[in-house]
Design goal:
91 residues; alpha+beta; 31% strand
């Protein structure tokens, strides 16, 4: 299985929790990614394209592959910081 996901990467849990609350209010994921993410993918609204299991760090994979299309995750901690993941497609 392959999934397509976007993410917002920030250095602190506090910032990630704030972004999660903003998303719950209906804020645009891509806009928040462009404005706040520290990953180069922010120029594409956080889009990481399609990837298979094992291509991302384990913590990221574990969450991304259990999500439903259109959902976004609570903050996920990895060695890179805190991610909010949005699953856009499964195939």
């Amino acid at each position: 299985m392959m999934v397509r996901a976007s993410h917002i990467l920030v250095p602190t849990e506090e910032k990630a929790k704030w972004l999660y609350k903003e998303l719950q209010k209906g804020r645009d994921f891509a806009k928040l990614a462009k404005d706040y993410s520290e990953c180069p993918s922010k120029t594409n609204g956080g889009d990481l394209g399609f990837f298979g299991k094992g291509q991302m760090v384990k913590e990221f994979d574990d969450v991304a592959f259990k999500m439903n299309e259109g959902d976004f995750s609570k903050p996920v901690k990895t060695q890179f910081g805190y991610h909010i993941i949005k699953l856009t497609k499964k195939k």
